[in-house]
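Hi support team,

I submitted a single chain yesterday and got back a structure, but I'm not sure I'm reading the token output correctly. Could someone confirm the output below corresponds to the sequence I sent? I've pasted both exactly as they appear in my results page.

Thanks,
R.
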Amino acid sequence: MVRQCGLHIISKLQKNSALVFPYSGEYAGRGAPRKYGDAIDYDNLPEPYLKSDSIDEDKNIQTRIYQMEMSHRKFSDTLNVVIIQKRNLSTGKISHVNLFSTDVTLDYEKVIDYYSLRFQIEFVFRDAKQYWGMEDSMNIKKIPIHNWANLSTFMVNFSHGLRQNSDMNEMSILDLKAHYHGLKYVKEVFKLLPHLANEYLIQKVSIKIANLGAIHSRERVS
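Hi R., thanks for writing in. Yes, this is the structure output for that exact sequence:
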């Protein structure tokens, strides 16, 4: 379904997935051409497919990265498989992670980088749904849905930008919303006064009201 939309998949396979190499032998002359070759042996990965070999001396861990085009009986497309193998040089214990993409043109570094981004993408959607109304949209037409989704995700980035301010870096999203709600209420109240209040009073009241409902209160506002 994803491929029919002109997109590619990047994901993770189980560590014991039954991957097989494409058959490279000659045609037997009868029946359908053979599609699948030898199954992968995770204990003896082929050296020609080794792309990177490094050692973390502090942790005494050797990391070897392999990339190869392989097949799986449950996937119609040939897979771009990246296997990250880690060996503990002290104990000899080996573990590995199998990443794959349906885009066979991607090099192993991009497959790893793109897969790592999935967690950041999930956090963006989580915050957009939990704090900025994406989940509450009642729109059913294409353009309003597009605008609502973009506004929700924009607010995620905008709120993180505000929190990078030195005065707000300890504030949660709920604290941030409570803070600006409080400032809005203060401004509306001061508009009702017959005379303009002095700057000191405005600052003092703003600090007090903006901290109401916040978990991590601030000592001052800018």
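A quick pointer for reading it: Residues 99 and 112 are 8 Å apart (CA to CA). Let us know if anything else looks off.

Best,
Support desk
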